[in-house]
Amino acid sequence: MDRILTIAAQFAQKGRVATAQEFGQGNVNDTYLVTLDSGEAPFVLQRINTHVFRQPELVMRNMRTFTEHVRQRQRTDVLCAERRWDVPQVLLTQSQQDHWLESDGTVWRAISFIDAAQSFDTIQSLDHAREVGYGLGMFHHLISDLPSEQLADTLEGFHITPRYLQQYESVLEQNSMGSSPEVNYCRAFICDRTSLAHTLETAKAKGLLPLRLMHGDPKINNIMIDAVTGQAVSLIDLDTVKPGLVHYDIGDCLRSSCNPLGEETDQWESVCFDLDLSQAVLQGYLSVARSFLTPTDYDYLFDAIRLIAFELGLRFFTDYLMGDRYFKTQYPDHNLARALVQFKLTESIEAQERSLKAIIQDLRR
Ligand code: GN1
Ligand code: MG
């Protein structure tokens, strides 16, 4: 921890670093909450996983472009005048850099802490679901007038499902994996859905879905909720804010918030997608997003929800087969367990296709 304290001190403009504690549930970066002994606001320190984000300087540049844009927009935005909305700020080092390169080659950055707010790994109530949706809508609203060319692609291939499928297939060719009921289930599950993988990319290629800016990772625990009002007040984890489809975000938000057991549950056989929650999330989202969604956007909402759950299962399973190189794990079969959860969720979404489509149909009127 001494090393972390020393790195944290690079970002402490005022006051001395008092403590640094591991923080959050991130699967990719390492995150610490840093407190200062001067009563200054705490901040978040992160080691950027450069195995995943190979150009961390681009990640930081995007983050600064994004936060500056939103800061300007908030000044005149009517929705922001009505209620609290916070944007995490990039903190600079003593020498005014947006990241710190440690002598061992690790890359670090610091971000302001969203005060008096919390996030949850699982959904708490229908009101919470509505707020989660509102938060994503607000995020898309605030970013909707930033031209997508202004942000770099910080993670090539991210959410391009056919690429994940290709990667899976090449891992299968090289890998003589043992068979177990769980592994066989995953393999058969993917095999039955290879055509599904292309749904959003085909629509994008045909020009049916426009390239916009997206958050990339708006899962339930990246949406901060005000500790007093219960309202969504911020989206954190801005590494993957980059050009993409808003559908990836909508799918990710729903797959993570409408699974009441959460993505880390060990009861994968009981995982299901909750329709009432999905209605609440979509209501919250559309209360802001209705103004910029096109009729075709609505046509692809069901596909997006189904696809992103499937895609995450595919990513976890491929990583399991590759020996856990991408997602951090806490035990040997962790990525397999995570994949099973997402596949069960996909199955549940598929089983409720008609009802979920009816909810979407009803909300688009
Ligand atoms: C990763 O690091 P974290 O937990 O914010 C992943 C997301 C997944 C998520 C699943 C850059 O996000 O795509 O949906 O795990 N981020 C990246 O929990 O791959
Ligand atoms: Mg993330």
From TrEMBL:
The keyword Kinase applies. It comes from the Bacteria. One of its GO terms (molecular function) is kinase activity. InterPro entries: Aminoglycoside_PTrfase (IPR002575), Kinase-like_dom_sf (IPR011009), Pseudomonas-type_ThrB (IPR050249). Residues 20-264 form the Aminoglycoside phosphotransferase domain. The keyword Transferase applies. Its EC number is 2.7.1.162. Keywords: Kinase, Transferase. PANTHER family: AMINOGLYCOSIDE PHOSPHOTRANSFERASE DOMAIN-CONTAINING PROTEIN-RELATED (PTHR21064), SLR1880 PROTEIN (PTHR21064:SF5). This is N-acetylhexosamine 1-kinase.
